[in-house]
Structure formats: structure tokens, C-alpha cells
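Handoff note, outgoing to incoming analyst
You'll be picking up this chain. Sequence as last confirmed:
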Amino acid sequence: MPAPVPGPKSNRSIPSATVIPVLIYPDVRAAVAWLEAAFGFAERVRIGEDHRAQLAFGDGAVIVGDVRHDRRPPRPGEATHSVMVRVNDVDTHCERARRNGARITMEPTDFEYGERQYHAEDLAGHQWTFSQTLADVAPEEWGGTSIVRD
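Most recent structure output, in case you need it:
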């Protein structure tokens, strides 16, 4: 078994989250404003006027990057990824997103694995899943398998 990876050192110039998606948008400033209004993110660092921005949500983070070279947002009708964000109240969050122009692709739904989730598409076509925990459910109760590592 591989040894656990130690946590990263602290650095105020990068979000403290362990995994940080970088999403590409045609207009970084417009994306930041929209993600704050629709999904409740908060900008924490701006790099250049329209180059990059770091956004925080709870203990998570996302980086918004500009279009350049081979970096492009998804094409219409194409899903190359989805970002999952845990929230306290999926229904309230979904209504906020809808009011601010998010395209809701799946209404809030309860799942057997103990989560209530909805799916949304943002202004650049990125796919998002927002998830509220309803109950602590063992994966074996719905057909999953827990992997135990020593």
C-alpha cells in the first residue's frame, strides 16, 4: 500500500484546498461576477485584470482562467467534466442559481446514497453538481463498495 501523502504547506498565493479545478472562460471578470452571484463563490485573488482569479467556497476553491493557446471553454453540447460542490441547502442554492441565469439541467433530486443534488450549466457551458447531505449512508447500502486501505 502506498504511504499517505502529507498535506501541502501553507501559501497565501494559492487556495488551501487539496484539489483545485481550473476552468477556462472567455471573459474572466464576467465569469467571476457570475459565479459570485449565481453560485455564491467569493473571489480571493485576482491575477492581472482578465487573466486568472481564485475563488473560494467553504473549504474548496476553483480557479477561473482566460482563453489562450490551447485553453478553451467547453463547446456547446459537450461535457468534458463536472465540478461537484457541497452546499447546506440544495433547493435554496438552486433557486439562486436559476435567478442568476444558470441553466438547471437536473432539478433537485434525492438519491439513495444520502445526497440531494441538482445539476447546472454556467454561462460558459461548464457543468456543475451541487450536493446536500441528507444522511450518512454506507456505500454497501446502495450497491457501492468501500475500499479499506491499511
